[in-house]
Fold:
Amino acid sequence: MERLKTGDQVVVIAGKDRGKQGEIKTRGEDGKFVVEGINLVKKHTKPNPNAGTTGGILDKEMPIDGSNLALLNPATGKGEKVGFKILDDGRKVRVFKSNGEVVGA
Structure:
């Protein structure tokens, strides 16, 4: 089970975008995540009439390492550490370390 999953709300805790919040779009094999509106770079593209694309400078979201992200706790509005707990019915769930609350419940 992973600490961060696609669709989670996260806070950037290190880097040029520190303090910004966003939702995880995708997860790479190397532990990097693409987060909506985070780690934007300028991408210069050439026009391609065959594909119907126009040229210009576009903003593109690049992957950010998972160690620079913290899961957003909706109760406190801050990024917090995540642990794991096995419930009485045998399910393994993610919990916030600060208050023991189940993530997403």
